[in-house]
């Protein structure tokens, strides 16, 4: 996607529908509002980031679902976590489409009948088959459904206007995801690949933070420093569990291997990040 | 007996420490019973002869409320005044000898602070928030583009509502993380399971415990959410259990009894008098004579237990058997040893003429817990429990029980000894302890310049 990024960076902003600027001018006098036009660049960059990840999500999902269709359990197991990462990174945008988010990423707890519920589909339905049943039997329709949903998501996001408050608020939303379901290890309870998702959420939050950091620094330099430190802390702890220190694509150890002490060590900075990032919208004068 | 006889307690043991005295604001119309209490308080403090007529009966202070109707630690709560405010600063923390209000919760935390400095920061934040919350006041406002600093569940002005917050430390805080080991209270230890326990690891222990009590649960929840909001990265809730006790409206001529537990028995009948300073210094507060580090003086041990009650089974047990198990009459609360028809809860059991347990079985709960011998006086504890109800078990039975909380100057002589005596008691058929822990209640924060745990940090520096 480098080429797309470069292409758009050369000035094709018209292709990126943005919220009307008037929508941004809602900050009361209490907060020295960031000039709305200053948000245009970071929001455009963020859309590029999302499109990059979507493209990766589509192609990885194609390989993953093909392995399921082919009945190759081992290959499908290996592709499960590396595919999800791209979804986890862009959750603030993906979640704007509640119907797709449910069919792609809902967990069995979201359904009264659990794994037996006919509406339980998507990644976690396949996770259950691959890691609990060690089988792809009867999974063809779920694989096809996931592929269709991901393609649908891709086309919907292409035409989406990215509201700045959703983008900026996405950093906090991602950390809330981490705090609610990643630290506890309930997201990927059968594959135990939670750390992949964890890193994906952190990546997505950090991307947003980095894009808006210069603006935030103008308002509160201490805030920026604190958030950076806490991101570093989280990433350092996560790095301890990488299978290959120098190769991120090698992924992570099973979440079962994460010690209680490290779960607590992760909870601290994650909670501070969630608290701090919950103020990022206000800091930038966004509603 | 006159009303004063019943409620004034002993003028010679009156508290002079105002730290545990409710301070109603001057501009609030006080209910009649509170007026009476203030009147009595004045009488006690100045040593005027009011109520002296009642003292000669036994020569000792009756274990009754010191400051009015419903003021014994485990009396059924009667104070529902939203403006009821207990001072935060003092030699001791609040919430120990303070009369128990209608609701209470214990919240255990893991401390996430990364080092000693972080721990000190945490203790200062906790002290500052507790000082504010227990006194009440207007919540701060903030630019509405930001998350509000207060949950808002009590509205723009927080009423103190009888709120007390009591901070205690667990044995695990003294591990290698913060360099506190050398200052550890002598008897602070990790709770070990007793024979009848079925401890659930997710509801046991903790680096810190915060007891939050108030007239209403919402006031407690507000306080807890404030603490969580203000300590990100420093604290993680490990477990929490809240409970209630039924309030009893004051009625003329009514005997002021202990609140009932979910087995239907009055709980706290034999509690030592929380308003008796001399007795509290002996049984509850750590002092010079207690073989503890100097910094710990003014503190107390808290034993917390989540004790499930099998209430359906209990309700299918004959009343006579229930009473034999406890050693008390269910309705009146009178000890079985009291043969008179008008037996009262307050009557002291007398086992001297019943060495074989023909009247009060030798394994009756109250007889094992407090054998009433000179040798077992030092094992007395100050109980301050609440009833809890958590929902329904998979078998359709109610998950109800007792959030047992008790305070003592010596954990081993107190709760641990008493519980060992109770091991194997017939009541075990109907109860199952599933959680809890041992903690040490820090000495109080003296004033605005002090913080809870300052002595502990200084002693281990």
Automatic annotation (TrEMBL), chain A:
CDD domains: Imelysin-like_EfeO
Keywords: Signal
Location of the Imelysin-like domain: 44-279
Compartments where found: Cell envelope
UniProt KW Signal keyword: yes
Coiled coil (residue ranges): none
Leader sequence residues: 1-32
Superkingdom field: Bacteria
Gene Ontology cellular component list: cell envelope
Homology family: Belongs to the EfeM/EfeO family.
Listed name of the protein: Iron uptake system protein EfeO
Automatic annotation (TrEMBL), chain B:
Enzyme Commission code: 1.11.1.-
Source domain of life: Bacteria
EC class name: oxidoreductase
Domain Dyp-type peroxidase N-terminal: 93-243
Basic and acidic residues bias (residue ranges): 341-356
Keywords: Coiled coil, Heme, Iron, Lyase, Metal-binding, Oxidoreductase, Periplasm, Peroxidase, Signal
Cofactors named for this entry: heme b
Residues reported to bind protoporphyrin IX: 268-270, 328
Catalyses which reaction(s): heme b + 2 H(+) = protoporphyrin IX + Fe(2+)
Gene Ontology annotations for the cellular component aspect, listed alphabetically: cell envelope; cytosol; periplasmic space
Region listing for Disordered, in residue ranges: 1-33, 330-356
A single GO molecular function term of this UniProt record: ferrochelatase activity
PROSITE patterns: DYP_PEROXIDASE (PS51404), TAT (PS51318)
Residues covered by the Dyp-type peroxidase C-terminal domain: 259-445
Residues binding heme b: 268-270, 365, 370-372, 383
Pfam families from the UniProt entry: Dyp_perox_C, Dyp_perox_N
A GO biological-process term: iron import into cell
Cofactor note: Binds 1 heme b (iron(II)-protoporphyrin IX) group non-covalently per subunit.
Coiled coil, from the record: 109-136
Keyword Signal: yes
Function: Involved in the recovery of exogenous heme iron. Extracts iron from heme while preserving the protoporphyrin ring intact.
Subunit structure: Homodimer. Part of a ferrous iron transporter composed of EfeU, EfeO and EfeB.
Protein name as catalogued: Deferrochelatase
Natural source organism: Salinicola corii
